[in-house]
Amino acid sequence: NFIKVIDxxxxxxxxxxxxxxxxxxxxxxxxxxxxxxxEKVGFLSGLVFGIKANINVEDYIISAASKTLxxxxxxxxxxxxxxxxxxxxxxxxxxxxxxxAAGSSTETSCFGPTQNPAAPGRIPGGxxxxxxxxxxxxxxxxxxxxxxxxxxxxxxxxCGVVGFKPTYGAVSRQGLLDLSMSLDQIGPLAxxxxxxxxALNAISDYDETECTTLKGERSDFTSVLxxxxxxxxxxxxxxxxxDVTDAEINVAVNxxxxxxxxxxxxxxxxxxxxxDLCLPTYYLINYVEFFSATRKYDGRDYGYRIExxxxxxxxxxxxxxxxxxxxxxSGKFYKKALQARSLIRDEINAMLENVDLIVGPTVPKLPHKxxxxxxxxxxxxxxxxxxxxxxxxxxxxxxKAGEVDGIPVGLQIQxxxxxxxxxxxxMSVFE
Length: 431
Ligand code: GLN
Fold this sequence. Notes:
Blueprint: H1 2-13, E1 16-19, H2 21-36, E2 48-52, H3 79-86, E3 90-95, H4 129-136, E4 142-147, H5 153-159, E5 162-165, E6 185-190, H6 193-203, E7 234-238, H7 239-243, H8 247-262, E8 266-270, H9 275-294, H10 306-309, H11 312-325, H12 327-330, H13 334-354, E9 357-361, H14 376-381, H15 387-392, E10 396-404, E11 407-415, H16 420-427
Parallel strand pairs: 2-3, 2-4, 7-8, 7-9
Antiparallel strand pairs: 1-3, 4-6, 5-6, 5-10, 9-11, 10-11
The structure holds glutamine.
Glutamine (GLN) is lined by residues 101-104, 127, 146-151, 179, 286, 383.
């Protein structure tokens, strides 16, 4: 069925960059055989996955939607891919994204933009726009994305699906082409919370090959799906988050927050003083870490020298990242950014001492029409509410709150590090 939808719509929507039908059918047959033989099958049995083009999958071209890597063949599976396969999930193909995940619209892909299936003519958000659109267009059950400053939650919001960025370190990044390694996390997108919970059960784990993953048992994320009661939970809305968001979006988001209250949650209002620091801090750290990550694309091991073939946004980050990295400037900018990051992290963690969840809009604006010319600053403005979770390392999810003029808008739910389960519990109220 998914293959049929892809055959019919992928050319127009530009969601999958590559689909391997034969391999997917072979995987499905192997699962059928196991069932016929009475063998035990994994809990992802028969669920079909799309994978963002910056996560290594054997035998696919893993280009990160960049000309730099357009002939880079995945020679191994990322840890998350092996974990999905081990539970009998089926990998169907590779989804479109912003070049090197640096963007919020999927327009910077060297393969062209992806259409938003839920809002024709508009961007799907980004950078995991292909993954969100794949789920929204019913081309697969679950998709994996990566989230450095919102790249899972932003497109989930714009496409009306569910997206989840786990606690930093909860899921292995081994096999992810990094944008900014102290901020990057892999996570799932799906049409419902149970898809998210199943995917997290598979991928959330300690990985001895990835030194930033956290040790310790993980929750069973499906265990709270049926509860639907938030009795005893305290949720906070942040005045500053509402102030930066368009009025119609706030209306839809407030309705969704009301549902959480109806389910028993107690609502309080809080204040977040460092909101103005978030975007400058995020982009500074992102530029510097991305510049350093790109030094391996010097034309020796992978096709081209990155500066010679990349798009404008990637070049901007490399040039400014290089400038800031020069020794004489390091104290002036990067160190300051790290200090600002601590302030942001401390303020958010202090807030989460007193409440279980912070709720509010995921993205402050509606998605623009494909081809509209935005300045870099206008583009970055999409990220103001999502970068906070990455800077603080906390888990955050986005679920559809409602629509504005037929365009989906998302509710963002954030929690303390390792309280991912509380977010899933709150999300399940919407099902
Ligand atoms: N839009 C943000 C950026 O351009 C976030 C990207 C991401 O999360 N990968 O950096």
